[in-house]
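Mods, move this if it's the wrong board.
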Amino acid sequence: MNNVILSFPDLLKAIRKETGLSQEKFAEKLWVSTMLIAMVETWQREPSKKIINILSDKLWVNSFSLMPFLSIEEVKDFDNLSFIEKKLYELWSWLQKELIEKKSKLLIS
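Not the wrong board. Structure tokens:
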């Protein structure tokens, strides 16, 4: 399995990079400080409910769509996952791709 699921900080950074926005401009779009974006992206601060809700509103998704990425652990042995775990992994991988490649466009439109 070569689909890697990103943690929330890495997902936030990937969404920002897909938009082509600097941390400062991205923060302005989310109505938060540049420092908050920088700290979340570099794992120095846990994402707050506020930033999750704002980001989900801006991406036109429910906040629960971002929740799986808050507690992601690296999957070292995909073959040993249960059928359901594999399906969830595939679903989250697809959702992450949609958030980065398609929904991020809403931040710059």
